[in-house]
Amino acid sequence: MKLSRRSLLGTAAAGAALPLLPARAQTPTIKLGVLNDQSGPYRDDGGPTGVVCAKQAPLDFGISGKGWNVEIISADHQNKPDVGASIARQWFDQEGVDAIVDVPTSSVGLAVSTVCREKNKVMLNSGTGTSDLTGKLCSPNTIHWTYDTYMLGKSTGGAIAKAGGDSWFFVTADYVFGHVLEDDTTKIVTKQGAKVLGSVRYPFPDTSDFSSMLVRAQASGAKVLGLANAGGDTANCIKQAKEFGIMDKMTVAALLIQSTGIHAIGLETAQGLRYSESYYWDLNDRTRAFNDRIKGKTPNGIWPNMTQVGDYGVTLHYLKAVNDMGVAAAKADGRAAVARMKAMPTDDDCFGPGRIREDGRALHPVYLFEAKKPSESKHQWDVAKVIAVTPMEEAFRPLNEGGCPLHKA
After folding, report:
1. Rounded to an integer, what distance in angstroms lies between the CA atom of residue 96 and that of residue 361?
2. Would you tell me which CATH number, out of the four given (3.60.15.10, 3.40.50.2300, 2.60.40.420, 3.40.50.1010), belongs to the domain 150-282+366-395?
3. Which of 116, 336, 343, 366 could lock 123 by a disulfide, CB 3.0 to 4.6 Å apart?
């Protein structure tokens, strides 16, 4: 049938008169980016397992019933500040990321914290160790959740000095984290009357042979070998110290090693080593319940350490704050989201009840562990026993000593 021009106009007019169907509303979404070492010396301290732990937070939060979604992506910063900062900018400017999680390697963490402040986004730090992140370089956009160099120096270094370790020699990773860890530990042990007889710094992350440094440490006559490093570097130092017989002559202070590191080294080598973490799978019923939920999801059957579960804890608390203030408000203002996190008490199965100070420092108890003897271990992940507990209000640097501009003394 041939339609006239008048018929066509009438048809168009009739169509225009029909009611418009409402557009389908999009579900609001919070987007998180886990940024860590996926391939280098800190891979086993954070890496893919840290991503898995972060993804557990929305599940335990019950996001399916909240009326909004969570999307989590990840990337490898290669332990390079320029790479980390570049990824952060791309995520914020092009991919709609609202918050960045983890960020080990202190030089990278400080760079990413600066980008988050510039873009008014959120940094949910678990892996960065430097205490400067809540000190002179603190930011209203950053939460420092799991540990820091002051805490490690106080819990591990302080305990060893108190037990008679009155002379020290440091082997130190030559970047921000190593420098600050050595400095914080030095201040703590010297206050207890110990002396530092020397130190040596090595290129990070390009060193695997520590033999000459260990020989220098032994020749110094120091009682304590302080390892101001982490991840694979710490493991290599301990293995080589054992091989050269140094562990029989000096006390080795592994200032940052975690349960995954003890597991990787093996109890035959690590037995008796004292170290500090703010989480361990076998602390209580809540930590055991979390480990049961997560261990079947991790690569290679890993049981997570404090940094990895820190990705879970800080993400979970952020989601609580977002839900409390509203998704739109949280996406619009990262500083406001961080402020809401500080205003709310913290509580989760990994770290228990706590709080966040105005400088961004999350507070929770810290545990001094001793690696078990092989004969004491019931299975491959039963690697440590608690020696001492530092209450959360004592475990971290006093607020008025950090120099954070956010703190009004």
Report:
1. 26
2. 3.40.50.2300
3. 116
